[in-house]
Amino acid sequence: MVAGARLNFEAIKSKMGNVVYVFGDESGNLDFSNNQGASRYFILTTVMMENCSVGDALLQLRRELAWKDVLLTEQFHAASDRQEVRDYVFESIAGFDFRVDATILEKRKTVERYRCDVSEFYRLAWWFHLKYVGQAVHRDDKVLLVAASLGERKKKQAFSDAFDAVALQTVSHADFHTAFWHDATDPCLQVADYCGWAIQRQWERHDDRSYALIEHKIASEFDAFRLGSKLFY
Hints:
By secondary structure, the chain is of the alpha/beta class. The protein is 40% helix and 21% strand.
């Protein structure tokens, strides 16, 4: 694990009591090729918090931006939002306590088994991620794990099943529940999207403009395939 900015997570936990919210989103895509538009990395990012007040702040921000006649899509989405909107979002979430963790997988180092079955690759990514993040969950915690849904119909169910299976493996010591929601349905998923986008920009393009705004909240960035050297495409 690469320690990030280094929140004192135990101090946060002392305030959280027994309730833990974890919202996760992915950055990059599942195109295992060198085609234009294929990302180099697939990144899972979660935000962990004691309450969802940061999401409430984003809902309020949308209302305020509407009064300012700022053009918005149906949700905050960092990749498609205008820079003006991104600036507002990062400013809005900056004052809230939450922990950011990211697991980075360089897709070219992925063996054929996982390149050929994207739901298995997705399961592997979450296993790497929750195997570490799950260590921050205690036996007396009540945990809500929410992943942003992706895929269509049959694939969406396969991804949801993979997420549930990994959660059972990694956080079964706590009282946990999972959900697989479209990121438009919960603003806390949009917080995860923004943090993941900032981390992806840093890894893909060495663009740290947005990364610098959340760096102090990053507890870990784990390069899952860091020891691998073979590229498969």
